[in-house]
Amino acid sequence: MSKRIFALLIALFVLVPAGFALTASAEESVNLRFAYWGSGAEKEGVDVAITEFEKANPNIKVERLHIPDDFVTKLNAMIAANEAPDVCYSGPWKIQLGKDGLIYNYYEIAELDPSISADDVADYCWWKWSETESAGPYQASVCPSLMYNVDLFNEAGVELPPTKAEDAWTWDEFVEVAQRLTFDRSGRNALDPAFDPEDIQQYGIQMSTGWNGWYPFVLSNGGKYLTEDGTAFGLNSPEATEALQKVADLINVYHVHPTPAASSTLPGTATALQTRRVAISIQGSWTHADLALTEDFNWGVGVLPIHKEYKSFFHGGSLVIFKSTKSLESALKLHNWIINPANVIELHKGLWVPQLNSWYTDPEKIALWAEEGTPGRPIGFQDAVMKSTFEHAEPSPENCVVNFAEIDALVWPALDNVWNGSMTAQEAMDSIADPVNALVAGWIY
Amino acid sequence: MDRWSKRLSIRVKTLIVILLLSLAPQCLLARQFYMRSRETLTETARQSMYQLLRVNNERTELDLATLHDVSMNILVDRELFAVFSDPMMSDPVNRRETEEAIHKILLKYFGSLPSVQQVEIITPTYSYVMNWTRLAQFGGFFQSDVFLDVREKNGGIAWLSSKAMEPFHHQKPSFACARLLNLRYVDDSSIGWWLEKDQDAVLMVMLGEAYFKDRLEATAAAVPGSVVCMVTPEGETLVRTDGEALDLSGYLPEMLATGTGMLRGVAADGSPLALCYDRSARTGWFAVSAFSVNALAGDLSRGLYLNMLGIMLVMALTTLLATGLSIRMLTRRIRSVSQGVDAVKAGDYSARIDESRRDEFTALVANVNAMSETLRRLIDENYKARIGEQEARLTTLMMQFNPHFLYNTLNVINWSVLAGRGKEASRLVVTLSRMLRYTSDSTRPVTLLREDMEWLEQYLFLMHSRFEGLFSVEWDVAPNCLNCLVPKLFLQPLLENSILHGFGGRGGGGGEIRIRARLDETNGTDLIVVVEDNGQGIPPDKAARILTDKRVSIGLYNTHNRISLMYGEGYGLVLDAAPGGGCRVTARIRAEMPTAESAD
């Protein structure tokens, strides 16, 4: 009997350590380096997500390289020193990295980690450098959003903006609403003949003068950044220039939108709405995060106005995975973890919106980020922002236009002349058509 | 040994045993104490050495990080890029210009870093320097293993030991770091691109001893006699503080396995060595410090030994004192017991040992006391009584054969015969014969008072014959006394005393003797017989001594002793002066009536 026990003990002493050794060698420890910028709530959200990732993957350690300034220079130095990070934030220059073969084509590696399915990514929410090659899906999305001060509407007796795309204002309706909400210092609104455009106290509308502000309306009017076949500049088409001009008219004809000079005196969007400088703002949806922090402020969201059809788009940044990584699987795991809305859910309650289809269709998931009545999601949000964008999304120009950055670098200075009224939209767009066409190289997709 | 053991007193033996028994553990403890203290001291020194090593290594890591970052940043320097992308760059004609440009750029990055001996950008055709004084020569560099290593890292940093640099450097540098010069152009918006290069170039940064030495020396200063050095994983020493060289090859396997920690080693002379090491994450090199345990513990030893000796001495003394005191207590007790026994041995049977203490000896003391009591009783009752009896017998015998009495009585008989008083003589002879018959019967020491009185009357008759008209005797005997048992002939000495001494010097006559006998009224158990005379009495000084000093009156002395022995204390003779002057002797004995056996 004791001999048997002895034998059993010997067996245990031999097998158990062997077992440990085997299992230990199966899970080697991995060190990943992750470079990023950002500050405040966004950085915190990402930091928390990475910590949770390390907890869920005890054999992976993530060295965080936070580079708030000169990210590109530093990244370049790291690349030159053969020390590129495994995963990092990226700007439009990722296209060059992709073409230079420094980063992975996400499509080729997606199956290595099934936590994100490439099919689940919403249409167009990709950064690609060719039809079949992508740096990866959006880390998260944002979209253009119409936000307004409820009290100002009520006081002026104006009907609140519609929340469903099918009820969207026409442009003219939109202009009239803006007029009724623009007041000079004597309290006269813009419809009043005695209205003084030199002395405006409250603007009916302020919108982003970047492409994320006016491009929905170009699309709505039937225009496009490039021609349909992608061979030529598209913003100088009649549909595009009409839309652009109508935006400019808000400033110079109807005086419901601040001039560029006046804009420079206005505070940030959330503050401008709260302090009644502006009644309606059309800005990136990340503004919801700022509005969520305000107290005692009644704000709402509505759908964008249309010319012909309701159009909108998502846009956002993406991460990249360097080919020099020594542990592709773990790097992909980290990548997918960070972009998964579930792991940064607090940020999706105001700052961002998801880039995955399931988060727009699955009621359980919707409830996690789009619950109405929460600080970042006022009543009407799901219709006005979530559904309207999701159901009418076009590709964002910075993702689908080859050489977009270079072309846009010519477009926005020209548009400045349109905003300040020195040129019409047609004139301005025509004036840059040639240099732009030299850069035009078609659609990416 | 046995003999010695028997000769030594218990006190000494106990002291020796206790001393030995207590010293043994004390020695053990002392040794333990010493070893522990040494351990602790060594451990503390090791720990602080190790901590210092780690802290200094951390600081060095920061410096190395600076080297790493600076050498990385230079790779995206636009000026450098411009120099190298100029196709005319390697043309010897432009050498001066290129040299100046590169010299300035290198100074910009490395000029302010400490301990940088030289920075060079090495190309197959030329080496461009930061400091104009050249210290190295890189001919054959691109065929060397060093270059292969650098190229393999493809822009990553290679840390080179001085051994690796040996082929190229005139004055041994402490170490160097190098990168393949992969230059990238970066502008504000674009991500940059590689420099198209037709030849390899290597950035080489050479650093002197001082880079590490200051920190190493600060670490070495913590423990005197210690040596601190930087060592590659292959065992090559890069830099070392003053002191003996260390051969660390034996310890490398463990150092490589653990990366950081402390070791016990052995010095060249076999003495124990304490080692601490910490590995740099960047370079993989070890900072190692070593010190001799004995040297450290040296001072400690002396101090400790003295301390220990002192403590042991104190403990020995205390033990001695304690032992001495306890033994003294013991022996004192024993001595008091033996003194008690001594007293009894000397004859004082009533001596008792003090029983007031309650200790281990109480039982013994009680027993000894009881024994003494028994002894006393035996002696008093049996021996003394027997002796008394013998003495009484002797006395009786003496009286029986008292030659003086016989002689005198015979004289009187003779005178009577001679005087023709035949009948008187016959009466005297008969009386004497009856007296002698009475006295010669020595079987009974006691007799009835009645019988003794008969004899006394005969005695007195004889005395009257001798001393005619000298005295008269009056008897006053209570009837209830007549049958009391009395010692035989006990009154004779009293009468003799009165006749011979009381009336002795008187001559004439008129002497009166009164004999009274009665029971004591107060207690009823005593018989009191008083013999009173009106003689000359006894001088007070003699009277005082008479019952204690044989010489004054042997008869009274013997009689008193006899009565005392027979009846006990409180019984005997009492002498005082009779009311009319003269002597009164009071005999007190116990009034005993004869039982059936003692009756005649």
Give a structural overview.
The complex is a heterodimer of chains A (445) and B (600). By secondary structure, chain A is α/β, with parallel strands linked by helices. Chain A is built from 19 helices and 13 strands. Chain A folds into two domains: 29-142 and 315-369, D-Maltodextrin-Binding Protein, domain 2 (3-Layer(aba) Sandwich), CATH 3.40.190; 144-313 and 396-439, Periplasmic binding protein-like II (D-Maltodextrin-Binding Protein, domain 2, 3-Layer(aba) Sandwich). Chain A has helices at 2-26, 40-56, 71-80, 94-99, 106-109, 150-156, 171-180, 211-220, 238-252, 260-265, 269-274, 287-292, 328-339, 358-361, 363-369, 381-391, 397-400, 404-419, 425-439, and strands at 30-36, 60-66, 87-89, 126-130, 133-137, 144-149, 183-184, 200-207, 278-284, 299-302, 312-313, 319-321, 393-394. Chain A is globular and about 110 Å long. Chain B has 600 residues and is an alpha+beta fold. Among the domains of chain B are: 33-305, no CATH class; 468-600, Histidine kinase-like ATPase, C-terminal domain (Heat Shock Protein 90, 2-Layer Sandwich), CATH 3.30.565. Chain B is 51% helix and 18% strand. Chain B has helices spanning 2-7, 10-73, 78-85, 95-110, 145-153, 162-165, 210-222, 252-258, 293-346, 362-400, 403-418, 422-440, 449-466, 492-502, 540-545, 554-567; strands spanning 116-122, 127-129, 158-161, 175-180, 184-185, 193-194, 202-207, 227-231, 237-240, 260-266, 272-279, 286-292, 446-448, 471-477, 485-487, 511-519, 526-533, 572-577, 583-590. The radius of gyration of chain B is 66 Å and the shape is rod-shaped. Chain B starts with a helix and ends in a 10-residue tail after the last strand. The A-B interface holds A 72-73, 75-83, 93-94, 96-97, 100, 405 and B 71-73, 75-76, 153-157, 179, 182-184, 186, 188-193.
